[in-house]
Amino acid sequence: MSSAADRVTERLDRAAALATREFDPRLAELLRGRVEAQLAGAPAPAAAGPLEEACAALADQFAVHVASVTEEQTEPVRKLAGDHGLYAVVCALYAFDAQARLRLARERLL
To answer: Which residues of 67-83 are buried (b: 16+ CB within 10 A; e: fewer)?
Structure first.
């Protein structure tokens, strides 16, 4: 891998770590797993409890087509985690999505 690609990967790793520093580790891994499963066409990890279920539904749609995320997917997260919590979930999803897409591209192209 080129040094530029290495730097991008390192920055995405840091972005994901920063985005999830206030998360329950289980929720962070659920979000990462849901995004990766959607992009790879693999079975997704199960959610446990209302917050995880709401976050899983948002993560699934986010990975498939972020522009199609609706209030129907965001509001349950907002109600359970607040505005700050919803924003934190979305930041984490962006980082996990970029990491997964870059990894898949590298695997398929190199």
So the answer is: eebeeebbebbbebbee
